[in-house]
Amino acid sequence: MAPIFWLLSQPLFWAALGVVFGPVLFVRGFSLLQRKRLIMDIPRSSVRAAALGPVELSGTAVGPYTLVAPLSHCDCLYYRIAAKSKVGGNYQKIKMRELSAPLFLDDGTGRVMIYPAQCELQLEASEPSGSRSTGAAGLGSDADEESLQEYCIRPGDSIFVLGSLQENPWANRDPKVEGSELSRIGPGFVSHDEADLLRREAYPALDNSNSLPSGMDDSQGEFDFHPPVIVMKGNGLFVISTNSQREIVEKLGWKSLIYIWGGPAAALWGLWEIFNHAKMAGLLSEGN
Fold first, then answer.
1. 147 Cβ contact list (under 8 Å, min separation 6)
2. Burial class (CB in 10 A: 0-12, 13-18, 19+), 42
3. Would you call 253 exposed, middle or buried from its count of C-beta atoms within 10 A (0-12, 13-18, 19+)?
4. Residues 271, 29, 277, CA angle at the centre, nearest 5°?
5. The sheet that has 149-153: what strands, in order across it?
6. What residue segments make up the domains of the chain, in order of their start?
7. Is the pLDDT of residue 188 over 70?
8. CB atoms within 10 A of CB 153
């Protein structure tokens, strides 16, 4: 550990980092600025007035029934578990597992189905209440338990969605694909019978005679499992966040400002420090 502390105490080390990473931060700052402008340029819309193409929607996450998240054991409409595996002593390989019940956004003017696969999640990680078992997470035994992170969208969560409103390719029910009660719905949503089966595996003490599985909304008939349009990954950004559009834009704004100005400043300081060090070491002539 002593050599590491010595290295961190050397100004020349930080100067070299500034020279190397300063330009990287500068480029990253413009990338964040471009992202901010893109979000601001996409029109905000209500569900009822949304047109096909890029959309920004805000509302409440709702659904006909819920899943049980493997780590936190909370009722949710969607969960994603990510874990890093050690390769050669270092975290390198990332594994991910996600599962979703039919997920809808309700903004008071209507409901729209969301297929969350491949989205960029901006959520707080869940706090597990039980064991952080990689087996329970379904990620295999080589994933490190300490690196597990679980993210959930719960019923009633206020969410902001930036994605692509498209014609639903699963608008018509396919009897071959959805031929049984355990068949996935459309793009791969867990059916209510499968969700109930997973729930009873998580909670063996549930009463099997209960005709309405725990977590199921008795108003599920109000939800259209095969709507004509759906929000999903398109050619652009696909973000699901518990932050509002204003909060996301503000965060991108100050981050881009810090990177655009801080990157060049770090690089110039690093060059100046290296120049002075070389000068003091006699590598540069005073007369040149």
1. 83, 84, 85, 91
2. middle
3. middle
4. 10
5. 90-100, 78-87, 149-153
6. 43-243
7. yes
8. 23
CA atoms within 13 A on the CB side of 62: 17
Three-class SS state of 14? helix
For the chain, counts of helices (H) and of strands (E): 5, 12
The C-alpha angle 194, 96, 77, rounded to 5 degrees, equals: 40
Residue type, 155: P
At 223-258, the pLDDT tens digits run 999 999 999 998 888 999 998 878 888 888 888 889
How many other C-beta atoms can be found within 10 angstroms of the C-beta atom of residue 118? Answer: 10
Pairing outcome for strands 90-100 and 158-167? unpaired
Q: Which residues contact 159 (CB under 8 A, 6 or more apart)?
A: 58, 59, 60, 61, 105, 153, 240, 241, 242
Instruction: State both tokens at 49.
Output: 């007035």
CB 216 within 8 A of CB 200: no
pLDDT, tens digit, for every residue of 79-112?
A: 999 887 665 555 555 778 899 999 999 999 999 9
